[in-house]
Design goal:
5 helices, 64% helix, Recoverin, domain 1, mainly alpha, 96 residues, globular
């Protein structure tokens, strides 16, 4: 019985480690996102407005507003998506 409990405890610990890894965000992706947000915040007020988002990624207002899920005029951290430059998108289409 004691051996069974040790095995079950080890399995529980292992499952917990895997679960923790599953929710851990990719550090490089988070760092890239933080840098992009800092670069997009032109007036350095700690917020990325729809206008700033449009300017940094050279996208139209409709696309920027689509990113602003709660329609408050601010691209929140959870709404912020790094947009690939248009030139890269054209190159991708040629490759396919």
């Amino acid at each position: 019985m004691k051996k069974l409990m040790v095995v079950l405890a080890a399995m529980g610990f292992t499952a917990g480690v895997y679960a923790a890894d599953a929710v851990k965000p990719d550090a490089k992706a988070e760092a890239a996102k933080a840098a992009a947000i800092k670069a997009a915040d032109a007036d350095k007020d700690g917020k990325v407005t729809v206008i700033e988002y449009m300017a940094i990624y050279k996208i139209d207002e409709a696309a920027a507003k689509k990113a602003d899920k709660n329609a408050n005029g601010i691209i929140e951290v959870d709404e912020f998506v790094i947009v690939a430059p248009a030139a890269d998108k054209k190159a991708d289409k040629k490759d396919k």
